[in-house]
Design a protein that fits this description.
By secondary structure, this protein is mainly α. The protein is built from 21 helices and no strands.
C-alpha cells in the first residue's frame, strides 16, 4: 500500500491498489505487460505482495526463474496465504526443478505440487492454479501424487468457474491418458461455447498432435486431422499469436511447412505478440527447411527485441538459430549459437545435443 499521510492521497492509493488486477493479463499470456505493470506498482510500493506474485509469474514465463522464485518467496513472506503467491512459487519451483535434471527435480516438483494445492485452497476461484494442478496430476507418476481421478476433479472444479477452461482441461487430461475420442468430445463442448478462444485452440491442436493421439489414431490419420483442423481454425486464430502458433505447429506436423510459414508471416503485422510469431518462423525454418535465410533473420530480430513469455525464452531462439546454421553448413556459427543457449541454461539438453552433432 502506498504510504501517505494525507487522507485524500491515501484514499486514492487504496483505490489504485484495488484496481490493480494482474490475473487478466497473466491468463491471456501478456507477460511483458504484466511485468511492466507490476514494476510500476512496486516502484510506488515495494511491499505490494500481489505485484510481487504477478511479476514472479511473468518472470517464470520469461524463463528468469531464480528472480521469479525470489519474488514469489518475498510475496508470501509479506502476505502468507496469498493464493497468487502460492501459484507463483509453484510455477517457479517447477521450472527450476525441470532445469535441474537430478534428484533435486523430484523435491522441486513435490514442493510445487504442495504450492498448487495451497493456491486453490486459499482461493478456489484461481483458475490458473486449477489448470496447472490438473495437468500436473495427470503428468506425474503416482509416487509423486499423480492421479487421473484428481486431474478430472480439477476439471470439475473449473466447470463451475469457467466451463470453457473446465472442458479444455478435461480434453487435455483425456488426450494425455490416450482417450482421444473422449478428449475430442470434451474439446467439442468447449468449442461450442467459445469457438475462438485462443487457449482452447492451442490446447486442442497440441493434444491432437501429441504422441498419445498418434498411438490412438495412427500417424497418417493424425496428420490428416492436423491438416484439416489447422485449416479450419486458422481464421479464428489469425490475430492471436499463441493460437496461431498452435495452428502453425499443426500445419508443420502435417508436413505443410510452407503453409505454416505463410500463415505466420501474414499475421505478424496485426498480431498481439509479433515476437511469438517471429520465433515461430524460426521453428518452421529449422524443422521444415523452408526459407532458412529468412528464418535466421527472424530469429536475429527476436534476439534483439523483447520476447513475449511462454515461448521458451531466448535460449530457444539461439537453439533454433543453431539448427538452421548447422543445416546450412555454417558450423562455427552454429556452435556459437548452441553455446549462447547453454550460457542461458547450462543444462539445456537441446543445445547440448546440437553441440555434439556439430562436433
Amino acid at each position: 500500500m502506498i504510504r501517505r499521510t494525507a487522507f485524500l492521497l491515501l484514499a486514492g492509493a487504496l483505490g489504485a491498489q484495488a484496481a490493480y488486477s494482474p490475473r487478466v493479463d497473466l491468463d491471456a499470456g501478456r507477460y511483458l505487460k504484466a511485468q511492466a505493470e507490476a514494476d510500476a506498482v512496486l516502484a510506488r510500493d515495494p511491499n505490494n505482495a500481489l505485484a510481487l506474485a504477478a511479476r514472479s509469474q511473468a518472470l517464470t514465463a520469461l524463463v528468469r526463474l531464480p528472480e521469479a522464485l525470489a519474488d514469489a518467496n518475498r510475496a508470501l513472506a509479506l502476505q502468507p496465504g496469498l493464493a497468487d503467491g502460492f501459484l507463483a512459487r509453484a510455477l517457479a519451483r517447477a521450472g527450476l526443478a525441470l532445469q535441474q535434471k537430478n534428484l533435486g527435480t523430484l523435491r522441486g516438483v513435490s514442493a510445487a505440487m504442495d504450492d498448487l494445492r495451497a493456491a486453490v485452497k486459499a482461493d478456489p476461484t484461481l483458475a490458473a492454479a486449477w489448470m496447472a494442478l490438473g495437468v500436473a496430476y495427470q503428468q506425474l507418476p503416482g509416487i509423486l501424487g499423480g492421479s487421473t481421478r484428481r486431474a478430472h476433479a480439477c476439471a470439475e472444479a473449473l466447470d463451475h468457474l469457467n466451463p470453457v477452461k473446465g472442458a479444455t482441461l478435461r480434453g487435455t487430461v483425456l488426450a494425455m491418458d490416450g482417450d482421444w475420442s473422449g478428449a475430442e468430445r470434451a474439446f467439442g463442448t468447449a468449442f461450442a461455447i467459445a469457438p475462438r478462444d485462443p487457449d482452447l485452440i492451442y490446447a486442442y491442436l497440441d493434444a491432437l498432435g501429441s504422441r498419445e493421439t498418434r498411438k490412438a489414431l495412427g500417424e497418417e490419420a493424425q496428420k490428416t486431422r492436423l491438416s484439416q483442423e489447422a485449416t479450419r481454425l486458422l481464421p479464428a486464430a489469425r490475430s492471436n499469436a499463441r493460437a496461431l502458433s498452435g495452428v502453425c505447429d499443426a500445419l508443420l506436423d502435417a508436413g505443410r511447412g510452407q503453409e505454416a510459414w505463410a500463415a505466420a508471416s501474414a499475421a505478424i503485422p496485426h498480431a498481439d505478440a509479433p515476437s511469438v510469431l517471429r520465433l515461430e518462423l524460426g521453428k518452421i525454418a529449422a524443422r521444415s527447411g523452408v526459407n532458412r535465410e529468412a528464418g535466421l533473420a527472424s530469429l536475429d530480430q527476436v534476439l534483439r527485441e523483447p520476447l513475449e513469455g511462454g515461448t521458451g525464452g531466448y535460449g530457444t531462439a539461439h537453439w533454433r538459430k543453431g539448427q538452421i546454421l548447422k543445416d546450412l553448413g555454417r558450423k562455427a556459427e552454429a556452435r556459437a549459437a548452441a553455446q549462447a543457449a547453454l550460457a542461458l541454461d547450462p543444462k539445456d539438453s537441446r543445445a547440448q545435443k546440437l553441440l555434439k552433432e556439430i562436433s
